[in-house]
Amino acid sequence: MTTELRKTGMDVVGDIAWGTHCCLFYETKADLLDTLVSYCKAGLEGREFCLWVVAAPVTQKDAERALRHVVPDIDRHVADGSIEIVAARDWYLQDGTFNLNRVIDGWNEKLARAMARGYAGVRVTGDTAWLETKDWKDFCDYEESLNEAIANQRLAVLCTYPIKACGAGEVMDVVRTHQFAIAKRRGDWDVIETAGHKQAKREVLERNRVEAALRRSEAYLAEAQRLSHTGSWAFNATETVYWSEENFRIWGFDPQQAPPRRETVVQRLHPEDRDRVLEEAQTAVRERRDYVVKFRIVLPDGAVRHIHGLGHPVFDANGELIEVVGTQVDVTERKRAEQERQKLHQLQADLARINRVSTMGELTASLAHEIKQPIAAAVTDANTCLRWLARADPDVAEGREAAGRVVKDVTRAADIISSIGVLFKKGAVPREPVDVNELIREMVGMLRSEAKRHFISIRAELDPDLPQVMAERVQLQQVLMNLMLNGIDAMKDTSGAHELTIASEADTSRLVISVRDTGVGLLPEHVDQIFNAFFTTKDHGIGMGLPISRSIVESHGGRLWGTANAERGATFQFSLPAAGASTFI
What we know:
By secondary structure, the chain is an alpha/beta fold. The chain folds into four domains: about 5-195, 3-Layer(aba) Sandwich (Rossmann fold), CATH 3.40.50; about 220-335, 2-Layer Sandwich (Beta-Lactamase); about 360-425; about 430-575, Heat Shock Protein 90, CATH 3.30.565. About 45% of the residues lie in helices and about 25% in strands. The chain contains 17 helices and 23 strands. It has helices at about 30-45, 60-70, 75-80, 90, 100-115, 135-150, 170-175, 195-230, 245-250, 260-265, 275-285, 330-355, 360-390, 395-420, 435-455, 475-490, 545-555, and strands at about 5, 15, 20-25, 50-55, 85, 95, 95-100, 120-125, 155-160, 180-185, 190-195, 230-235, 240-245, 290-300, 305-315, 320-330, 430-435, 455-460, 470, 500-505, 510-515, 560-565, 570-575. A seven-stranded mixed beta sheet has the order 5-4-8-9-3-10-11. A hairpin with a 2-residue loop joins strand 6 and strand 7.
Protein backbone atom coordinates (compact mmCIF):
# COMPACT_ATOMS: atom_id res chain seq x y z
CA MET A 1 0.00 0.00 0.00
CA THR A 2 1.45 3.31 -1.05
CA THR A 3 1.71 6.08 1.53
CA GLU A 4 1.35 8.70 -1.21
CA LEU A 5 -0.77 11.64 0.00
CA ARG A 6 -3.56 13.13 -2.10
CA LYS A 7 -4.99 16.65 -1.91
CA THR A 8 -8.62 16.77 -0.75
CA GLY A 9 -9.49 20.34 -1.70
CA MET A 10 -10.72 20.80 1.89
CA ASP A 11 -8.50 23.06 3.99
CA VAL A 12 -9.75 21.62 7.28
CA VAL A 13 -8.69 18.11 6.21
CA GLY A 14 -5.56 18.74 4.18
CA ASP A 15 -3.97 15.77 2.43
CA ILE A 16 -5.08 12.16 2.88
CA ALA A 17 -3.66 8.76 1.99
CA TRP A 18 -5.18 6.21 -0.33
CA GLY A 19 -7.51 3.93 1.61
CA THR A 20 -9.07 6.84 3.52
CA HIS A 21 -12.77 6.41 4.35
CA CYS A 22 -14.29 9.51 5.97
CA CYS A 23 -17.69 11.18 6.29
CA LEU A 24 -19.19 14.66 6.13
CA PHE A 25 -22.21 15.88 8.10
CA TYR A 26 -23.83 18.76 6.20
CA GLU A 27 -26.64 21.15 7.08
CA THR A 28 -27.50 22.76 3.74
CA LYS A 29 -27.42 21.91 0.06
CA ALA A 30 -25.01 24.81 -0.49
CA ASP A 31 -22.58 23.45 2.10
CA LEU A 32 -22.68 20.05 0.42
CA LEU A 33 -22.11 21.37 -3.10
CA ASP A 34 -19.32 23.76 -2.10
CA THR A 35 -17.41 20.99 -0.33
CA LEU A 36 -17.85 18.28 -2.97
CA VAL A 37 -17.01 20.60 -5.87
CA SER A 38 -13.64 21.37 -4.23
CA TYR A 39 -13.17 17.67 -3.46
CA CYS A 40 -13.80 16.58 -7.06
CA LYS A 41 -11.77 19.48 -8.51
CA ALA A 42 -8.74 18.34 -6.50
CA GLY A 43 -9.26 14.79 -7.77
CA LEU A 44 -9.42 15.84 -11.40
CA GLU A 45 -6.29 17.98 -10.99
CA GLY A 46 -4.53 14.95 -9.48
CA ARG A 47 -5.39 12.78 -12.50
CA GLU A 48 -7.87 10.68 -10.52
CA PHE A 49 -11.09 9.12 -11.76
CA CYS A 50 -13.95 10.77 -9.82
CA LEU A 51 -17.35 9.24 -9.07
CA TRP A 52 -19.99 11.50 -7.53
CA VAL A 53 -23.14 9.70 -6.29
CA VAL A 54 -25.89 12.30 -5.75
CA ALA A 55 -29.19 12.12 -3.89
CA ALA A 56 -32.10 14.52 -3.52
CA PRO A 57 -32.21 17.45 -3.12
CA VAL A 58 -29.00 17.50 -5.21
CA THR A 59 -29.47 16.34 -8.80
CA GLN A 60 -26.95 15.40 -11.46
CA LYS A 61 -27.61 18.72 -13.18
CA ASP A 62 -27.01 20.57 -9.90
CA ALA A 63 -23.64 18.83 -9.54
CA GLU A 64 -22.59 19.59 -13.14
CA ARG A 65 -23.71 23.23 -12.81
CA ALA A 66 -21.76 23.67 -9.55
CA LEU A 67 -18.65 22.03 -11.03
CA ARG A 68 -18.78 24.26 -14.10
CA HIS A 69 -18.25 27.34 -11.89
CA VAL A 70 -14.85 26.10 -10.68
CA VAL A 71 -13.85 23.62 -13.41
CA PRO A 72 -14.40 25.49 -16.71
CA ASP A 73 -13.55 22.43 -18.83
CA ILE A 74 -15.84 20.09 -16.91
CA ASP A 75 -17.56 19.06 -20.16
CA ARG A 76 -14.23 17.67 -21.42
CA HIS A 77 -13.76 15.70 -18.19
CA VAL A 78 -17.28 14.28 -18.50
CA ALA A 79 -16.76 13.45 -22.15
CA ASP A 80 -13.48 11.61 -21.62
CA GLY A 81 -14.88 9.71 -18.64
CA SER A 82 -12.67 11.30 -15.96
CA ILE A 83 -15.75 11.96 -13.84
CA GLU A 84 -19.13 10.29 -13.57
CA ILE A 85 -22.14 11.73 -11.76
CA VAL A 86 -24.77 9.10 -10.97
CA ALA A 87 -27.96 8.96 -8.94
CA ALA A 88 -27.75 7.24 -5.55
CA ARG A 89 -30.72 4.95 -6.17
CA ASP A 90 -29.15 3.74 -9.43
CA TRP A 91 -25.82 3.08 -7.75
CA TYR A 92 -26.81 1.71 -4.34
CA LEU A 93 -30.11 -0.06 -5.09
CA GLN A 94 -31.11 -2.86 -7.40
CA ASP A 95 -34.85 -3.42 -7.74
CA GLY A 96 -35.24 -1.17 -4.69
CA THR A 97 -32.96 -3.32 -2.52
CA PHE A 98 -29.54 -2.44 -1.10
CA ASN A 99 -26.92 -5.17 -1.57
CA LEU A 100 -23.61 -4.67 0.24
CA ASN A 101 -21.53 -7.00 -1.91
CA ARG A 102 -22.89 -5.63 -5.19
CA VAL A 103 -21.91 -2.07 -4.24
CA ILE A 104 -18.39 -3.04 -3.12
CA ASP A 105 -17.95 -5.03 -6.34
CA GLY A 106 -18.96 -1.88 -8.18
CA TRP A 107 -16.18 0.11 -6.53
CA ASN A 108 -13.64 -2.58 -7.38
CA GLU A 109 -14.80 -2.64 -11.01
CA LYS A 110 -14.47 1.15 -11.29
CA LEU A 111 -10.99 0.95 -9.74
CA ALA A 112 -9.84 -1.76 -12.15
CA ARG A 113 -11.05 0.24 -15.16
CA ALA A 114 -9.49 3.45 -13.89
CA MET A 115 -6.11 1.85 -13.27
CA ALA A 116 -6.21 0.23 -16.72
CA ARG A 117 -6.74 3.69 -18.22
CA GLY A 118 -3.78 5.15 -16.37
CA TYR A 119 -5.53 7.10 -13.62
CA ALA A 120 -3.71 7.60 -10.31
CA GLY A 121 -6.65 6.09 -8.44
CA VAL A 122 -10.37 6.54 -7.75
CA ARG A 123 -11.98 9.31 -5.71
CA VAL A 124 -15.56 8.66 -4.58
CA THR A 125 -18.22 10.67 -2.82
CA GLY A 126 -21.65 9.26 -2.09
CA ASP A 127 -24.64 10.97 -0.46
CA THR A 128 -26.95 9.04 1.88
CA ALA A 129 -30.02 11.29 1.85
CA TRP A 130 -31.85 8.42 0.10
CA LEU A 131 -31.40 6.06 3.06
CA GLU A 132 -34.56 4.69 4.66
CA THR A 133 -34.83 3.24 8.16
CA LYS A 134 -35.12 -0.30 6.78
CA ASP A 135 -31.74 0.04 5.06
CA TRP A 136 -29.85 1.68 7.94
CA LYS A 137 -28.36 -1.44 9.55
CA ASP A 138 -27.30 -2.97 6.22
CA PHE A 139 -25.76 0.32 5.16
CA CYS A 140 -23.82 0.61 8.43
CA ASP A 141 -22.51 -2.92 7.85
CA TYR A 142 -21.48 -1.83 4.36
CA GLU A 143 -19.71 1.27 5.71
CA GLU A 144 -17.84 -0.84 8.25
CA SER A 145 -16.79 -3.45 5.68
CA LEU A 146 -15.66 -0.68 3.31
CA ASN A 147 -12.82 0.22 5.70
CA GLU A 148 -11.19 -3.16 5.13
CA ALA A 149 -12.21 -3.40 1.47
CA ILE A 150 -10.33 -0.24 0.43
CA ALA A 151 -7.51 -0.39 2.99
CA ASN A 152 -4.93 -1.52 0.44
CA GLN A 153 -6.50 0.05 -2.63
CA ARG A 154 -5.94 3.33 -4.48
CA LEU A 155 -9.39 4.45 -3.41
CA ALA A 156 -10.54 7.39 -1.27
CA VAL A 157 -14.18 7.57 -0.17
CA LEU A 158 -16.09 10.53 1.30
CA CYS A 159 -19.61 9.65 2.49
CA THR A 160 -22.03 12.53 3.12
CA TYR A 161 -24.89 12.54 5.64
CA PRO A 162 -27.57 15.22 6.23
CA ILE A 163 -27.16 16.06 9.94
CA LYS A 164 -30.84 16.91 10.30
CA ALA A 165 -31.75 13.31 9.44
CA CYS A 166 -29.39 11.86 12.07
CA GLY A 167 -30.15 11.41 15.75
CA ALA A 168 -27.48 10.77 18.37
CA GLY A 169 -27.56 7.02 17.71
CA GLU A 170 -27.23 7.42 13.97
CA VAL A 171 -24.39 9.93 14.39
CA MET A 172 -22.57 7.44 16.63
CA ASP A 173 -23.04 4.71 13.99
CA VAL A 174 -21.66 6.94 11.25
CA VAL A 175 -18.66 8.18 13.23
CA ARG A 176 -17.87 4.65 14.41
CA THR A 177 -17.73 3.28 10.87
CA HIS A 178 -15.45 5.97 9.41
CA GLN A 179 -11.86 6.95 10.07
CA PHE A 180 -12.88 10.53 10.83
CA ALA A 181 -15.83 12.88 10.39
CA ILE A 182 -16.17 16.46 9.16
CA ALA A 183 -18.88 18.70 10.60
CA LYS A 184 -19.63 22.35 11.17
CA ARG A 185 -19.11 23.63 14.70
CA ARG A 186 -19.85 27.28 15.48
CA GLY A 187 -20.02 28.02 11.78
CA ASP A 188 -16.66 26.52 10.81
CA TRP A 189 -15.79 23.10 9.44
CA ASP A 190 -13.99 20.88 11.92
CA VAL A 191 -12.56 17.35 11.89
CA ILE A 192 -13.80 14.88 14.50
CA GLU A 193 -11.71 11.74 14.89
CA THR A 194 -13.08 8.46 16.20
CA ALA A 195 -11.52 6.79 19.21
CA GLY A 196 -10.16 3.98 17.04
CA HIS A 197 -8.59 6.45 14.59
CA LYS A 198 -7.11 8.51 17.44
CA GLN A 199 -5.71 5.38 19.01
CA ALA A 200 -4.25 4.24 15.72
CA LYS A 201 -2.59 7.64 15.25
CA ARG A 202 -1.28 7.57 18.80
CA GLU A 203 0.13 4.10 18.24
CA VAL A 204 1.82 5.17 15.01
CA LEU A 205 3.25 8.30 16.62
CA GLU A 206 4.40 6.37 19.67
CA ARG A 207 5.90 3.63 17.51
CA ASN A 208 7.69 6.21 15.37
CA ARG A 209 8.92 7.97 18.49
CA VAL A 210 10.21 4.74 20.01
CA GLU A 211 11.79 3.60 16.77
CA ALA A 212 13.39 7.00 16.24
CA ALA A 213 14.66 6.92 19.81
CA LEU A 214 16.06 3.43 19.29
CA ARG A 215 17.76 4.45 16.06
CA ARG A 216 19.23 7.47 17.81
CA SER A 217 20.30 5.34 20.75
CA GLU A 218 21.92 2.83 18.45
CA ALA A 219 23.81 5.61 16.66
CA TYR A 220 25.05 6.98 19.98
CA LEU A 221 25.95 3.47 21.11
CA ALA A 222 27.86 2.80 17.88
CA GLU A 223 29.88 5.97 18.39
CA ALA A 224 30.51 5.09 22.04
CA GLN A 225 31.62 1.59 21.03
CA ARG A 226 34.01 3.03 18.50
CA LEU A 227 35.55 5.28 21.14
CA SER A 228 35.51 3.18 24.30
CA HIS A 229 33.09 0.23 24.29
CA THR A 230 34.64 -2.00 21.69
CA GLY A 231 37.40 -4.29 22.78
CA SER A 232 40.02 -5.70 20.46
CA TRP A 233 41.98 -8.89 20.92
CA ALA A 234 44.38 -11.33 19.28
CA PHE A 235 45.08 -15.02 19.99
CA ASN A 236 47.64 -17.33 18.45
CA ALA A 237 47.41 -21.08 18.67
CA THR A 238 48.55 -21.25 22.30
CA GLU A 239 48.17 -17.92 24.07
CA THR A 240 46.64 -14.47 24.26
CA VAL A 241 48.72 -12.07 22.24
CA TYR A 242 46.87 -8.82 22.79
CA TRP A 243 43.91 -7.40 24.70
CA SER A 244 42.83 -3.76 24.60
CA GLU A 245 42.00 -2.00 27.83
CA GLU A 246 38.32 -1.97 26.92
CA ASN A 247 38.39 -5.72 26.40
CA PHE A 248 39.63 -6.13 29.97
CA ARG A 249 36.67 -4.08 31.17
CA ILE A 250 34.13 -6.05 29.15
CA TRP A 251 35.32 -9.38 30.50
CA GLY A 252 35.84 -8.13 34.06
CA PHE A 253 39.63 -8.48 34.21
CA ASP A 254 42.12 -6.01 35.68
CA PRO A 255 43.71 -4.01 32.82
CA GLN A 256 46.82 -3.56 34.98
CA GLN A 257 47.50 -7.27 34.80
CA ALA A 258 48.76 -9.35 31.91
CA PRO A 259 46.20 -10.55 29.37
CA PRO A 260 44.35 -13.61 30.68
CA ARG A 261 45.19 -17.01 29.30
CA ARG A 262 42.86 -18.45 26.69
CA GLU A 263 41.65 -21.16 29.06
CA THR A 264 40.67 -18.51 31.63
CA VAL A 265 38.67 -16.59 29.04
CA VAL A 266 36.87 -19.75 27.93
CA GLN A 267 35.76 -20.37 31.51
CA ARG A 268 33.91 -17.05 31.54
CA LEU A 269 31.80 -17.98 28.55
CA HIS A 270 28.24 -18.78 29.57
CA PRO A 271 27.96 -22.58 29.98
CA GLU A 272 25.04 -22.70 27.54
CA ASP A 273 27.02 -20.80 24.88
CA ARG A 274 30.55 -22.17 25.42
CA ASP A 275 30.52 -25.14 23.01
CA ARG A 276 28.73 -23.18 20.30
CA VAL A 277 31.22 -20.28 20.42
CA LEU A 278 34.26 -22.59 20.32
CA GLU A 279 32.79 -24.64 17.48
CA GLU A 280 32.03 -21.50 15.43
CA ALA A 281 35.60 -20.22 15.86
CA GLN A 282 37.16 -23.58 14.98
CA THR A 283 34.91 -24.00 11.91
CA ALA A 284 35.82 -20.50 10.67
CA VAL A 285 39.55 -21.31 10.95
CA ARG A 286 39.08 -24.60 9.06
CA GLU A 287 37.07 -22.86 6.35
CA ARG A 288 39.44 -19.85 6.32
CA ARG A 289 36.67 -17.28 6.77
CA ASP A 290 35.63 -14.56 9.17
CA TYR A 291 32.96 -15.30 11.71
CA VAL A 292 30.38 -13.44 13.72
CA VAL A 293 29.05 -14.86 16.94
CA LYS A 294 26.70 -13.67 19.67
CA PHE A 295 27.16 -15.04 23.16
CA ARG A 296 27.00 -14.36 26.86
CA ILE A 297 29.70 -14.14 29.48
CA VAL A 298 29.37 -14.54 33.24
CA LEU A 299 31.44 -12.24 35.47
CA PRO A 300 32.73 -13.28 38.91
CA ASP A 301 29.87 -11.40 40.61
CA GLY A 302 27.31 -13.35 38.60
CA ALA A 303 26.45 -10.52 36.22
CA VAL A 304 25.68 -11.64 32.67
CA ARG A 305 26.81 -9.60 29.68
CA HIS A 306 25.73 -10.03 26.06
CA ILE A 307 28.60 -9.86 23.57
CA HIS A 308 28.72 -9.43 19.80
CA GLY A 309 32.00 -10.84 18.54
CA LEU A 310 33.79 -10.74 15.19
CA GLY A 311 36.80 -12.92 14.43
CA HIS A 312 39.26 -12.86 11.54
CA PRO A 313 41.78 -15.72 11.08
CA VAL A 314 45.19 -14.61 9.73
CA PHE A 315 47.29 -17.05 7.69
CA ASP A 316 50.86 -16.89 6.42
CA ALA A 317 51.98 -17.41 2.83
CA ASN A 318 52.08 -21.16 3.38
CA GLY A 319 48.52 -21.24 4.62
CA GLU A 320 49.50 -21.75 8.24
CA LEU A 321 47.44 -20.02 10.93
CA ILE A 322 49.32 -17.16 12.53
CA GLU A 323 46.64 -15.77 14.81
CA VAL A 324 42.99 -14.82 15.10
CA VAL A 325 42.20 -11.16 15.65
CA GLY A 326 38.85 -9.65 16.38
CA THR A 327 36.61 -7.26 18.21
CA GLN A 328 34.00 -7.73 20.89
CA VAL A 329 31.21 -5.31 21.63
CA ASP A 330 29.29 -5.27 24.89
CA VAL A 331 25.68 -5.05 23.63
CA THR A 332 23.98 -5.71 26.95
CA GLU A 333 22.18 -2.35 26.97
CA ARG A 334 21.13 -2.78 23.35
CA LYS A 335 19.76 -6.23 24.20
CA ARG A 336 17.76 -4.73 27.04
CA ALA A 337 16.47 -2.03 24.70
CA GLU A 338 15.35 -4.71 22.24
CA GLN A 339 13.56 -6.55 25.01
CA GLU A 340 11.85 -3.32 26.09
CA ARG A 341 10.88 -2.67 22.51
CA GLN A 342 9.30 -6.12 22.28
CA LYS A 343 7.41 -5.45 25.51
CA LEU A 344 6.25 -2.10 24.12
CA HIS A 345 5.01 -3.71 20.91
CA GLN A 346 3.13 -6.32 22.94
CA LEU A 347 1.62 -3.57 25.08
CA GLN A 348 0.55 -1.68 21.95
CA ALA A 349 -1.14 -4.84 20.65
CA ASP A 350 -2.97 -5.32 23.97
CA LEU A 351 -4.04 -1.67 24.03
CA ALA A 352 -5.27 -1.93 20.44
CA ARG A 353 -7.51 -4.85 21.42
CA ILE A 354 -8.87 -2.97 24.43
CA ASN A 355 -9.53 0.15 22.38
CA ARG A 356 -11.77 -1.71 19.98
CA VAL A 357 -14.44 -1.38 22.67
CA SER A 358 -13.54 2.12 23.80
CA THR A 359 -15.62 5.13 22.86
CA MET A 360 -14.68 8.66 21.81
CA GLY A 361 -14.36 12.14 23.20
CA GLU A 362 -15.69 12.70 26.68
CA LEU A 363 -16.73 9.03 26.91
CA THR A 364 -13.12 7.91 26.65
CA ALA A 365 -12.10 10.38 29.33
CA SER A 366 -14.93 9.18 31.55
CA LEU A 367 -13.87 5.55 31.10
CA ALA A 368 -10.35 6.48 32.18
CA HIS A 369 -11.77 8.05 35.34
CA GLU A 370 -14.06 5.10 35.87
CA ILE A 371 -11.37 2.43 35.93
CA LYS A 372 -8.72 4.55 37.67
CA GLN A 373 -9.54 3.44 41.19
CA PRO A 374 -9.70 -0.36 40.70
CA ILE A 375 -6.46 -0.33 38.71
CA ALA A 376 -4.72 1.84 41.31
CA ALA A 377 -6.02 -0.47 44.03
CA ALA A 378 -4.77 -3.50 42.08
CA VAL A 379 -1.29 -1.97 41.84
CA THR A 380 -1.25 -1.24 45.57
CA ASP A 381 -2.42 -4.76 46.45
CA ALA A 382 0.07 -6.33 44.04
CA ASN A 383 2.92 -4.42 45.70
CA THR A 384 1.61 -5.49 49.10
CA CYS A 385 1.57 -9.10 47.92
CA LEU A 386 5.16 -8.84 46.74
CA ARG A 387 6.29 -7.38 50.09
CA TRP A 388 4.64 -10.22 52.02
CA LEU A 389 6.27 -12.83 49.80
CA ALA A 390 9.68 -11.11 49.78
CA ARG A 391 10.14 -11.37 53.55
CA ALA A 392 12.75 -13.71 54.95
CA ASP A 393 9.84 -15.79 56.25
CA PRO A 394 7.21 -15.27 53.50
CA ASP A 395 3.70 -14.80 54.83
CA VAL A 396 1.78 -16.83 52.24
CA ALA A 397 -1.60 -16.22 53.87
CA GLU A 398 -1.23 -12.45 53.73
CA GLY A 399 0.16 -12.70 50.19
CA ARG A 400 -2.81 -14.84 49.12
CA GLU A 401 -5.25 -12.32 50.62
CA ALA A 402 -3.54 -9.42 48.80
CA ALA A 403 -3.55 -11.41 45.56
CA GLY A 404 -7.26 -12.04 46.02
CA ARG A 405 -7.83 -8.30 46.27
CA VAL A 406 -5.84 -7.84 43.07
CA VAL A 407 -8.13 -10.33 41.33
CA LYS A 408 -11.19 -8.54 42.69
CA ASP A 409 -9.94 -5.07 41.64
CA VAL A 410 -8.85 -6.19 38.19
CA THR A 411 -12.11 -8.07 37.69
CA ARG A 412 -14.00 -4.92 38.60
CA ALA A 413 -12.05 -2.90 36.03
CA ALA A 414 -12.59 -5.59 33.40
CA ASP A 415 -16.33 -5.66 34.11
CA ILE A 416 -16.52 -1.88 33.68
CA ILE A 417 -14.71 -1.97 30.35
CA SER A 418 -16.87 -4.85 29.12
CA SER A 419 -20.08 -3.13 30.14
CA ILE A 420 -19.16 0.20 28.52
CA GLY A 421 -18.79 -1.67 25.25
CA VAL A 422 -22.52 -2.41 25.37
CA LEU A 423 -23.15 1.24 24.43
CA PHE A 424 -21.91 0.51 20.93
CA LYS A 425 -23.79 -2.73 20.32
CA LYS A 426 -27.18 -3.04 18.74
CA GLY A 427 -29.88 -5.28 20.17
CA ALA A 428 -31.30 -5.83 23.60
CA VAL A 429 -29.15 -5.10 26.65
CA PRO A 430 -29.49 -7.34 29.72
CA ARG A 431 -31.00 -5.36 32.57
CA GLU A 432 -31.42 -5.96 36.26
CA PRO A 433 -32.81 -4.16 39.32
CA VAL A 434 -30.40 -1.32 40.19
CA ASP A 435 -30.19 0.68 43.43
CA VAL A 436 -29.58 4.17 42.04
CA ASN A 437 -28.66 5.58 45.47
CA GLU A 438 -25.89 2.99 45.73
CA LEU A 439 -24.76 3.93 42.23
CA ILE A 440 -24.63 7.61 43.20
CA ARG A 441 -22.56 6.81 46.29
CA GLU A 442 -20.09 4.86 44.14
CA MET A 443 -19.78 7.75 41.70
CA VAL A 444 -19.31 10.27 44.50
CA GLY A 445 -16.54 8.13 45.96
CA MET A 446 -14.91 7.66 42.59
CA LEU A 447 -14.92 11.35 41.63
CA ARG A 448 -14.32 12.95 45.01
CA SER A 449 -10.55 13.13 44.54
CA GLU A 450 -10.99 14.67 41.08
CA ALA A 451 -13.33 17.27 42.57
CA LYS A 452 -10.98 18.04 45.45
CA ARG A 453 -8.21 18.66 42.96
CA HIS A 454 -10.24 21.66 41.76
CA PHE A 455 -11.40 22.66 45.28
CA ILE A 456 -14.95 21.44 44.64
CA SER A 457 -17.08 19.79 47.31
CA ILE A 458 -19.59 17.05 46.48
CA ARG A 459 -22.83 16.63 48.42
CA ALA A 460 -25.41 13.85 48.03
CA GLU A 461 -29.08 14.37 49.00
CA LEU A 462 -30.61 10.93 48.61
CA ASP A 463 -34.20 9.83 49.11
CA PRO A 464 -33.97 6.81 51.48
CA ASP A 465 -37.18 5.34 49.99
CA LEU A 466 -35.96 5.50 46.39
CA PRO A 467 -37.28 2.50 44.42
CA GLN A 468 -35.02 0.39 42.25
CA VAL A 469 -35.01 0.68 38.46
CA MET A 470 -34.65 -1.99 35.80
CA ALA A 471 -31.48 -0.87 34.02
CA GLU A 472 -28.06 -1.75 32.70
CA ARG A 473 -25.95 -0.64 35.64
CA VAL A 474 -22.87 0.62 33.85
CA GLN A 475 -24.93 2.64 31.36
CA LEU A 476 -26.54 4.56 34.22
CA GLN A 477 -23.09 4.86 35.77
CA GLN A 478 -21.93 6.44 32.51
CA VAL A 479 -24.77 9.00 32.55
CA LEU A 480 -24.05 9.97 36.16
CA MET A 481 -20.32 10.22 35.53
CA ASN A 482 -20.81 12.39 32.44
CA LEU A 483 -23.14 14.80 34.24
CA MET A 484 -20.90 14.98 37.30
CA LEU A 485 -17.73 15.53 35.25
CA ASN A 486 -19.54 18.23 33.25
CA GLY A 487 -20.44 19.93 36.53
CA ILE A 488 -16.85 19.75 37.76
CA ASP A 489 -15.61 21.11 34.45
CA ALA A 490 -18.09 24.00 34.63
CA MET A 491 -16.75 25.09 38.04
CA LYS A 492 -13.02 24.48 37.92
CA ASP A 493 -12.13 27.84 36.33
CA THR A 494 -14.68 30.00 38.18
CA SER A 495 -14.45 31.93 41.44
CA GLY A 496 -16.67 31.67 44.50
CA ALA A 497 -18.02 28.62 46.31
CA HIS A 498 -17.81 25.41 44.33
CA GLU A 499 -20.35 22.74 45.18
CA LEU A 500 -21.69 19.79 43.22
CA THR A 501 -24.99 18.41 44.55
CA ILE A 502 -26.45 15.09 43.47
CA ALA A 503 -30.01 14.45 44.61
CA SER A 504 -32.54 11.65 44.20
CA GLU A 505 -36.29 11.70 44.76
CA ALA A 506 -39.25 9.58 43.71
CA ASP A 507 -43.01 9.25 43.52
CA THR A 508 -45.00 6.07 43.10
CA SER A 509 -43.90 5.33 39.53
CA ARG A 510 -40.84 7.39 38.68
CA LEU A 511 -37.62 8.62 40.21
CA VAL A 512 -35.70 11.78 39.35
CA ILE A 513 -31.94 12.28 39.68
CA SER A 514 -30.48 15.80 39.55
CA VAL A 515 -26.90 17.07 39.31
CA ARG A 516 -26.56 20.72 40.28
CA ASP A 517 -23.40 22.82 40.04
CA THR A 518 -22.41 26.42 40.85
CA GLY A 519 -20.40 26.96 37.68
CA VAL A 520 -20.68 29.12 34.57
CA GLY A 521 -24.34 28.34 34.05
CA LEU A 522 -26.40 27.65 30.95
CA LEU A 523 -27.40 30.32 28.44
CA PRO A 524 -31.09 30.25 27.41
CA GLU A 525 -30.18 29.89 23.72
CA HIS A 526 -28.11 26.79 24.54
CA VAL A 527 -30.81 24.90 26.43
CA ASP A 528 -32.14 23.23 23.28
CA GLN A 529 -28.76 22.92 21.56
CA ILE A 530 -26.67 21.15 24.20
CA PHE A 531 -28.16 17.77 23.31
CA ASN A 532 -27.36 18.14 19.59
CA ALA A 533 -24.50 16.07 18.20
CA PHE A 534 -21.19 17.98 18.01
CA PHE A 535 -22.51 21.01 19.92
CA THR A 536 -20.25 22.00 22.80
CA THR A 537 -19.59 25.08 24.92
CA LYS A 538 -16.17 23.77 25.95
CA ASP A 539 -12.78 24.44 24.42
CA HIS A 540 -12.21 20.68 24.37
CA GLY A 541 -14.38 17.68 23.62
CA ILE A 542 -16.49 16.98 20.55
CA GLY A 543 -19.98 17.54 21.95
CA MET A 544 -21.18 13.92 22.15
CA GLY A 545 -21.40 13.38 25.92
CA LEU A 546 -24.90 14.76 26.46
CA PRO A 547 -26.42 13.27 23.27
CA ILE A 548 -25.10 9.86 24.31
CA SER A 549 -26.43 10.31 27.86
CA ARG A 550 -29.84 11.31 26.54
CA SER A 551 -29.91 8.25 24.27
CA ILE A 552 -29.12 6.00 27.25
CA VAL A 553 -31.81 7.57 29.45
CA GLU A 554 -34.43 7.45 26.69
CA SER A 555 -33.59 3.81 25.97
CA HIS A 556 -34.55 3.15 29.60
CA GLY A 557 -37.92 4.91 29.16
CA GLY A 558 -36.74 8.13 30.81
CA ARG A 559 -36.02 11.74 29.97
CA LEU A 560 -32.93 13.98 30.37
CA TRP A 561 -33.03 17.78 30.44
CA GLY A 562 -31.04 20.79 31.65
CA THR A 563 -31.95 24.15 33.16
CA ALA A 564 -30.10 27.25 34.33
CA ASN A 565 -30.11 27.89 38.09
CA ALA A 566 -31.68 31.09 39.42
CA GLU A 567 -28.40 32.46 40.79
CA ARG A 568 -25.47 30.61 39.26
CA GLY A 569 -24.69 27.30 37.69
CA ALA A 570 -26.90 24.75 36.00
CA THR A 571 -28.91 21.67 36.90
CA PHE A 572 -29.25 18.54 34.79
CA GLN A 573 -32.00 16.07 35.66
CA PHE A 574 -33.13 12.74 34.34
CA SER A 575 -36.16 10.67 35.19
CA LEU A 576 -36.53 6.90 35.07
CA PRO A 577 -39.51 4.59 35.60
CA ALA A 578 -39.36 2.61 38.82
CA ALA A 579 -38.95 -1.15 38.50
CA GLY A 580 -42.24 -2.64 37.35
CA ALA A 581 -43.66 0.70 36.15
CA SER A 582 -44.62 1.43 32.53
CA THR A 583 -41.83 2.82 30.35
CA PHE A 584 -44.17 5.08 28.38
CA ILE A 585 -43.81 8.81 29.04
